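tool_log.txt
---
The assistant was asked to compare two proteins side by side. It first ran the structure predictor on the initial sequence, then on the second. Raw inputs and outputs are pasted verbatim so the downstream comparison step can read them without reformatting.
(1)
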Amino acid sequence: MKSVRLAVDIGGTFTDVALLNNGNIHITKVLTTHDAPERAFLEGMQTLLDEAGVKATDLDLILHGTTLATNAIIERRGAKTGLITTEGYRDVLEIADEGRFEQYDLMLKKPAPLVSRPLRLCVNERIDSSGREITPLDEESVVRAAEKLRDHNIESVAIGFIHAYSNPANEIRAREIVQEILPDVTISISSEVCPEIREYERFSTTCANAYVRPIMDGYLSRLEDKLATLGADCPLLLMTSGGGLTSVSTARAFPIRLVESGPAGGAILASRIAEQVEATSAVSFDMGGTTAKICLIEDAKPESSRTFEVARTARFKKGSGLPLRIPVIEMIEIGAGGGSIAAVNNLKQITVGPESAESMPGPACYDRGGDNPTVTDADLVLGRIEGKGFANGSMDLRDDLSKNAFDRNVGQPLDLSTINAAFGVCETIDETMTNAARVYSVERGRDLANHTMIAFGGAAPLHAARMAEKLQIPRIIIPQNAGVGSALGFLSAPISYETVRSHHVLLSKFNPAELNSLMDDIYEEVSAVLPPKANDNEVRSQERLAYARYVGQGHEVSITLPNRPYEASDADTIKQTFESKYEELFNRTLPDAEIEILTFSLKISIENNINLSSSNGTADEQADNVSDKTMSVFLPSSRQFEDIPVYHRNALQKEQSYAGPCLIQEQTTTTFVSARFDVSIDPSNNIVLDVNNS
């Protein structure tokens, strides 16, 4: 049976495209077109369709992830948004949780709310935490608020009422009233976007959803129209931050679920690779053109979370960004990519990022008007990448422009040679990423020296070896077609959706009938979002979680619940599960303390058994003649240029070991193997770097 699938990941610098055609994978990279992201999407798509000899009408499925929602929030170019809330809660977005991410900083800069105070309006209504109506909704106050927002030419409205998670009736009715007055405005209600306790996080998430919804709706509408024009009438699925694929209609209604869609695809790929190579403890390292992402993977599963911060005002500082309460794969993301701009600060120190040259104007070597040196410029000057045919042959890089940029912006201010300036930039970015990985792992009680690094993205294979040296990681896996890793992750991701519901349960008063009814309601809600069952062999799995704590505590611990109807005896089962998890985290339990559950979640997944190692990767030359050239590369170990072998990836023989230092070139990336590592190709066509004994 014919199977043709397309995956597209739009990043800040490149748009990565992968086409799976009956087991054969075709890949390409094109520069992202920020003014109209769908243009790069369609350009890359057409390139691969032509290469594979198929047409748009042959496509069975299109999978997509994009940074559009994230960038709109970071750059503050979303829709003009208004908030309608309960009387007395107008300033929740600014009061937040009253915390300070830097206790003694007198110049502390907190993130500005997405909705300004004049556009935050109150109405009369009140629901208590059990869902009981205290004050009926004053519909006239809703009409007045909607008319005032109309006068301000609002493009999107967020509605967030206190305790709406326990009873959404007032929010639903308010939406009906506002929609009558503002028929062309998108409306997001908190009981659908984030039906959980804690009004600040719920209101912040709902406002963010409203803020990006018109942009995402317009983009997806244009994309669907253009795909239909080309004859691609197959389903289009969007990657969510939680690592699953969802429908376009769901993505349009809840675009905030897409903020980490690209990185999530990479984490899914890394999980598949970890399972493939039987790495029980792994760390994924995804470095593209704009950012670097690091994620811990235990037992072939990436760590997940219910919270995420976007648009932080201070790097690495928790609490300095806007909180989003959505299912998300837990990772740390920093402004460190190939396009990260290098400069010298007032202390005469080299700084790299978080600002990026992106696709326009791009690094200096792109010859597109950029005059700032970047990490890509440094890699070019140091000889790690070949200028001709860069990014799948889409451009030729000019090292003379890179050298001029380094001399002007780094070398002269610090009295350094061009080479030392470029080397300083590489060492700075490698140390920045290494420190981020250290902090991230230590906070979770992990020692990365016991982990396998899985590196992918256009720039990661160039920097993985140096990072592994600093972190004392003994093994690096670079998967096949690593340059488009996130797009490949889309191809292997499950179709899934997760939703949550806050519902207070004391274990001492456990009511199995009440919990079964709640889980049945959540199941129906999730099932309505997923596509109908395709065939009898389709495998659908459930994951049920509860967020529990001891009474009086401020935060919860997630525990797994059985996937079955509950009985009275399950109170003891849940207690044992909670105490086991609590002791694992804190090395103790509180034997006489009452346990309560605040929130339940359910995730349904339709597994996707796509084999991504079945295409290419076969040796096409003899093992004793795999390198027909050398390149002069500046080596960190000797601090000088040396001629080292250059191998083409497909020429390397499986199970044959090659000594570093060397370069391994492939279609969309290059791997730098330092002298500390030997390299081989495993049975699944992964590049494997193992520390040698020298």
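(2)
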Amino acid sequence: MAYEVPLRELTASGDRLPVILARYEADRGSLDRLFTTPYSPRRRERLRSFLGAWEDALAAVAGDDLSRSDRLDALLFGNLLEAERWQLDREQRLFAEMELLLPFAADLIALEDDRRQLGDVEPPEIAAALDQAKEALDRTRKALEAELDAGRTPAAGVRPAVAHRAAQLLEQLGTVLGEWFGFRFGYDPTFSWWVEKPYRALETALGEYREFLRKRLAGAEDEAVVVGDPLGREALEEDLRRALLPYSPEELIAIGQRELEWCRGEMLRAAGDLSCGDDWRAALEQVKAGHVPPGEQPALIRELAHEAIAYLEEHDLVTVPPLARDGWRMEMMSPEQQKVSPFFLGGETIMVSFPTAGMEHTDKQMSLRGNNRAFSRATVHHELIPGHYLQAYSQDRYRPYRRLFRTPFWVEGWPLYWEMLLWDRGFARTPEERIGMLFWRSHRCARVVFSLRFHLGEMTAAECIELLVNDIGHERQNAAAEVRRSFEGGYDPLYQCAYLIGGLQFRALQREVVGAGRMTDREFHDAVMRENTMPVAALRALLLELPLTREAISGWRFDAPA
């Protein structure tokens, strides 16, 4: 099919906020690229000033003369600026918790900040500073070791999560300092003469201290141990408020548990259809054995992607542009990546998880079983079309400035909503395919439960792994990778609960819009893609022409039983 330029779409908008938001995004990007050192106080100071200026600018343009779309964008922009300030305050608190373990860190951070801002250096002073940092590190470590060897809790009273966070920061600082040192070493003879020796000594000490913190204080003696960093109730509730969700953590956990019970009931029905009686584990084992031979997974993924697209077009569910239909690619995931992401990852390039020849035998078996045909069928449409790839394609083309308002409830809720809709429409034709879809839906329910309870301090990472193994049926290694990805992968603390909760939000909105005859399925799904990312409650207000106030939007209680 020939490519056409959608001129009418491109010239239809007369809104003002897009220009403002595009400038904010560009200016914010410049600051982010200038200050890359983690936990930099100088970065926080500059960003607070930057955010204050934009808050003043937003107040100056807000008014009744704005279009409806502009008024929504202004509301979301204000919410974003508040959230950015909150994140800076949180970062400062997190760093303060680590300072007793890392009394030298602020001085090392300043070295790279100075370089980024093109400051001059005095090599003798730099050498002295590095030597003093190592002395501070040595004193701190000796004091901690003495208390541990005496069987006492360290005077710092540090939690394992804080020690683990400090170890992660040391790893990041090691990389940053390597770049800082490499900038002048060999190019500046005076710098090289003065600085090399103290830098090398500090580099070694940082690596050894990082392992001490990780193993002895955080308790991660084994590489497989997942520690994580619980958020705490106050911060968790603040994040929910910023996400415009009028629910407590306990209410969301109850929703996850209820939906998990629904999945279990459906799983038992499918088990019965496979002549497994009420033994859902036996049925799951039967499905896991249904994988393709080595070498044939790419062909299976291609087949499943085309099947999903054909279904969408046959039933007129969403517009799939020709360039989107043909524009995705496929790559195979490395064994190292599979330790953190044992299943597929999606977008314009779908990353396929499958065993490689060099894996250990048990690792191969787990990867084969975890990426079987039925599981893969339920994963491909989540990652490609109508899921993440269609999202990414649309985000680049429709109101791209709204990517600033990215929320996991939209990003992950949309593919999960499609899993629900396709289930309701009978996309799963066999008991095996139903089990494939139910496995993933159960997993999303469990994510709500274990992630929120972890951040409330009610579950450990090890208990989260056991939940996935015993209640969902994950392979143990895959369960550990999922939990590690959840708590050590740099994700938003609400990210794991956002799959199911966002999916339920989209389902409730679809029932309000399509169920009431306001739009067809295709019109609704196209409208979601063309408005781009934002809290689903804000999208609801826009599509249903509701009042565009924070109070009205954030009061939406979307929940309804399956």
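---
observation on (2): Residues 103 and 274 are 61 Å apart (CA to CA). The first helix runs from residue 7 to 10.
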